[in-house]
Design goal:
By secondary structure, the protein is of the alpha/beta class. It has 3 domains: 196 residues, Spore Coat Polysaccharide Biosynthesis Protein SpsA, Chain A (Alpha-Beta Complex), CATH 3.90.550; 177 residues, Hypothetical protein af1432 (Orthogonal Bundle); 185 residues, Rossmann fold, CATH 3.40.50. The protein contains 22 helices and 15 strands. The strands form 4 sheets. A 5-stranded mixed sheet has the order 3-2-1-4-7, sandwiched between helices. It has a 5-stranded mixed sheet with strand order 13-12-14-11-15, sandwiched between helices. A 3-stranded mixed sheet has the order 6-5-8. A hairpin with a 2-residue loop joins strand 5 and strand 6. The longest helix is centred in the middle third of the chain and has 25 residues. The radius of gyration is 27 Å and the shape is globular.
Length: 577
Amino acid sequence: MDNNKRPAGLILAAGFSSRMKDFKPLMKIGNMTPLEILISHLKIAGVEDIFVVTGYNADILSSFLADKSVNIVYNENYEQGMFSSIQAGVKAAAENGNDCFLLSPVDIPLIPPYIFKAVLDRQYEYMDCFTVPRWEGKKGHPLSIPSCFVEEILESRGEQGMKSVTSAHEDRMIYIETGCRSILLDMDTQESYKELLQYYEENKYPTEEQCRKILDRMSTPSHVIRHCEAVTGTAVCIAEALNEKGCSFSIPLIQGAGLLHDALRVQKKHWDAGADMALIYGYPEVADIIRAHMNYIPSVPVFDITEKDIVCLSDKLRQEDKLVTLEERLEPIRTRWADNPEALKIIETKIEAARAVMEYIEGIIGVKVYDLLHQDDKEKEAAGGKKEQGRRLVLVRHGETQRHKEKIFMGQYDVPLGQEGREQSTIVGLELQHFDIKTDRIYTSDLKRARESSKIISGILDNHPEIVELPELREMALGSWDGRFISDIKREYPEEFEERGKNLLTYKIDGDAENFVELQERVMKKVRELIDSTDGDVLIVAHSAVNRVIMCSIMNRDLSDALRIKFGRGTYQFLEI
């Protein structure tokens, strides 16, 4: 959360729960209470200051909340109704210095974190308006209240509850249309509680359609999606074979975790980034598997397994979308860490643990896992036919450069690779070997970081492609700011720096600089020429902005998408051409 933004979450939990005939804040939804769910979701959305307004059963709630890192606000007037709790919460948050308040009754607990975040993002664009999400035109929660309404709320008699204030400001209401029904679902009665529990069970895991929308939103590369699909198919095949023998593994959980486990592979520590993404969407069990899949080591000997074991094993059995043995999967990793005995020992331990999981599974299903998967692959191939491979454009970003004492503007400033960057380029070379790339050339930017990455990759690929240096593939020119510390630029050119941040696509620092529009024109002229003048695949090693404008052009996407596409150092993407 931006340090200049201080949102607060207001959870109203002061009522009698008279219609429910049970104490709503502490009832169970899965293994959590409504209070715990709302607190967790607000924190995941980046809200640090959370106020829980209590009244009825205040002592019980205070004890329950003692270790939850929230602010407890006792509403001594709780018998007067919900508006008195709103006033108590708003007053406490305003005195704390918070600038907007996300209002959530405790009996509407299934608001996912991304809704809280979306409402907050919109609120900070319109700090003189209320912000509220809607589903199919119906207003839901949270209601976001900016601090400019504090005085009016505290002075209101609230005859109509919060409507006493909002109805006077219909022209200051910002609505966000969502596809999320849970912003309306309450648990006011036993009947509505049963409906809410049913919704919770049916929406604990993302559907395939939802996963694919997330993959598209995250701009996950097509080859990574194929890997995720292959891992999912493998994991589901294993789980279904186990379930046929009396087990009860959750296929929806396995599908969700399998399809999303590498969604953010282009980012650093993609397992953590991917898990955080799944949490934002409201899928904590999926997030747990994603976070574990790179470093998980099950206990040996194996006496029991979970969905996590099945997905993690399946990930090791697929080199991209190709079924491989554990030994085959280990071979390139051994090459990479040949000079690091400690790392090799950890990797060997992981493989041995995976082998133990596989033997445990085989003991239940009565067949070899590889035989099961080979048969499944054959049946899928027979049903769908084998797709002929077309031409591909392979985009690689150079590895991490040598570090400076602080962040710099690195456009065409010529910096060599650091040790981490050389390791990243080695990994890229090892992984690209599995794709049968049909080219005898690597086209690279002539800047050091790209040239060095290309040389490492060429040395690993079996046919050692010729390296062709092209200045047209250089990173965006940043003029007089190139190579300078960002902190110095912010201090010396505060207005220009702010203006650039507002208009990254078209802003030019000076006459020697480029913007994204000019970069795309310069780069795509050469890329089109390479595609038209060659056969087979085209392999390019370049830079972040260069690769992103190429992606927008080849995929027929608006250039503005270049600002949200992530392309990490030492990563690659495949595009069909």
